[in-house]
Specification:
With about 130 residues, the protein is an alpha+beta fold. It has one domain: Hotdog Thioesterase (Thiol Ester Dehydrase, Chain A). Helices cover about 20% and strands about 40% of the residues. The protein has a 6-stranded antiparallel β-sheet. It comes from Sphingomonas sanxanigenens DSM 19645 = NX02. InterPro entries: HotDog_dom_sf, PAAI_dom, Thioestr_dom.
Length: about 130
């Protein structure tokens, strides 16, 4: 599995485990992700969703080391405020084509069935 990029370190992200072969990312609450008092900043949530999408896509491309991935469309839906606790995110590759991949991502805190945000990302794949 590929390491997370440096941006993930700024947010304090780590891979907690694999779920059905996809990396489950965690983001602790702290000063680096603080928005208004008591809440996670929306930009930090979007960053977590993006990193989870990249991690899921790279896990799906495990046998292909020479692929460059670029996001071409990102849509984030904020469903509720993230509170002062660990936030989790998990991506699912819904389509993996030759040039385009679609990834769905969900972020939650207490219950995966009650997400705080979701994202849909379309990625351009450049195979080298």
């Amino acid at each position: 599995m590929r390491a997370l990029p440096p941006y993930a370190d700024l947010l304090g992200l780590s891979i907690a485990e694999l779920r059905d072969g996809m990396p489950l990312l965690t983001m602790p609450f702290g000063e680096a992700v603080l928005g208004r008092p008591g809440f996670v900043h929306g930009g930090a949530i979007a960053g977590l969703l993006e990193m989870a999408a990249f991690a899921a896509l790279h896990a799906s491309l495990a046998d292909e080391a020479d692929v460059t991935v670029k996001p071409v469309n990102v849509s984030v839906d904020y469903l509720r405020g993230g509170r002062e606790k660990i936030t989790y995110a998990l991506g699912h590759v819904s389509r993996l084509g030759r040039r385009i991949a679609n990834v769905d991502v969900s972020a939650w805190q207490d219950d995966p069935g009650a997400p705080i945000a979701t994202a849909r990302m379309t990625m351009l794949l450049r195979r080298g």
